[in-house]
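Example record for the data management plan.
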Amino acid sequence: MSTAEIRAAALTSKAWPYEEARKLLKRWPDGKPDGAPIIFETGYGPSGLPHIGTFNEVLRTTMVRHAYEELTGAPTRLIAFSDDMDGLRKVPDNIPNGAMLAEHMGRPLSKIPDPFGTHDSFAAHNNALLHHFLDQFGFDYDFASSTDYYAAGRFDDTLRKVLRHWDDILGVMLPTLGEERRLTYSPVLPISPTSGRVLQVPVTVVDADVGTIAFTDEDGTQITQSALGGLAKLQWKVDWAMRWVALGVDYEMSGKDLIDSTTQSGKICRILGARPPEGFNYEMFLDEKGEKISKSKGNGLSIDQWLTYGSEESLSFFAYREPRKAKSLHLGVIPRAVDEYYQFRGNYAAQAIEQKLGNPVHHIHGGKVPAATLPLTYGLLLNLASLPGVGDKATAWRFVQQYAPGTSPATDPELDKLIGLAVNYARDFVAPTLKRRAPTETERAALADLDAELAKLSPDTPADEIQNIVFEIGKRHNFDPLRTWFQTLYETLLGSSQGPRMGSFIALYGIDNSRKLIAEALAAA
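Corresponding structural encoding:
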C-alpha cells in the first residue's frame, strides 16, 4: 500500500481511529502553525496501582495518533501526564503498609513515602509501573509529572490566567456543586506551609499578575503566599483545562464517567482563551461481576495477569474492539481474544485496502502487520495442554512438532510463546475444572464406530479428512442436531462442554492417543 492509497482510503474509512483522526483534520485543515506537532495527551492519577483500563487509554490514543499521521504525514507528540501532585484522599485497598499511608492523608502523592519501599515516593512507584507498561508495548511518549511542571513554573503563565478569570471560572463550577461544597470551593488548592497538605479551603486572589493568594491555614493562621512555582495546584477540573491550555493539547479521550467533567473543563478552557481538545468518551471496563474496574479496589485484571496467559497483541486487540461499548474484562475473555487476533491477522494480507484499514491488526501494529501465520490455534493448544501428561511446554511441543513438522522453539518463537501461554492457562483454569462423563449406550456405539474408523487411518492423515469422518459418524448414528455429537465427544473425551474442531484435535494429539481416550471413555462405568 502506498502512502497516497492509505490517505485516500483513510478519508472515508469507518474504523474508529480514522473517524477520530478526521476530527483533528477539521481542527487544523492546514496543519498547526509553523509545523508544530499535534499534541495528544493521556492522564494518569497515581493514587492507586495502574490497571488495564489506564493503559488502554494510552493504547487507543496511540491508535488515533497513528491514524492521523497516516492521513496527513504531520508531526505529532503524545504526553503521558501523571497528576502526582494530587493530595491522597483515601488509602487504596490493594497495597501494603496502609497504616503508614494513612498518616499522610492530604499530602501530594509525590511527597508521600512509598509503601512498597522501592522508590522515593508513592507517586514515583506508580509512575514507574506506568513507564514499564508503556515501554513494554513500545509506545512513543513524553512522560510529564504534575509535580515537576508546577515546581518548575511551566504552568505559571496559565495559573495567572486562572487568577485573572477567577469569577468566570467560579461561574462554571459553583452551579455544579452542592450548597455546602460551594462555601469552601476554590479553583486553587494551596499547599499548607506547615503541614504540606493540599488544602480544600476558600481562597482570595490578592494579585493575579504577581500570582499571590490568601487563605486560612489548618492551624487558623492567615497566610498570603504565591500560587506559583508549586506552592499550590488547581482543582482537577480546572487543572485539566489549564493543562490543555498550557500544553496546547489537541486530543484527549476519557471515560464515559467523565462526560460532565469534560464539558466543564471545556468551558474553563475557553475562558482561558483556548479551544478544548478533540476526543471521545469511551465506555468503562467491567470486572467479572459487572462492576467498574477501580485502581483502589484492585478488581479486574492486571497487566501481568493478562500477559501470563495471553499475548500483548491479544490485549491490544481486546482494547481496540468497540471502545464505546462496556466490556467485561476477566480471565475468561483471554482465549477468544488471542484466537480472534490471529484470525484477523491471517485475513489481512489478502484484503483490499479498505478492509485492511478497518482490520484491528492494522491499528495494533501501526500498519506494519506481521505476515507470519501459526499452524494451530490457542484454543486447540488449550485442549491439548489440559490433557493428563501434557501439562508442560516441552511435552506440548512434541505433539505440535508431529502436527507441524519443521517447527521448533528456536525457529518459531511466536509459536513457542503461544504454547507457553496456553500451558499456563490450561494448568491454572482449564485442567482443574475438567470432568469426563460416561457415555450413554447410543454414544458408546458411535464412539466405538469412530474408534474403528480411526484404526484404519495412517498417523499422518490430514485434519480435514479426519473431520469428515467425525461428521459422517455423527450422521450415521442419527445425532440431531449434529452438534450434540460433538458435545458428546467434548464431554466424554475431554471433560468439557465445549471444545475444538475434532479433526484438528485428533491430528494434533495423534490417532493412537485419541483412540486411547476413546477406550477410556468406553471403559467408564
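Summary line stored alongside the record: Residues 36 and 182 are 40 Å apart (CA to CA).
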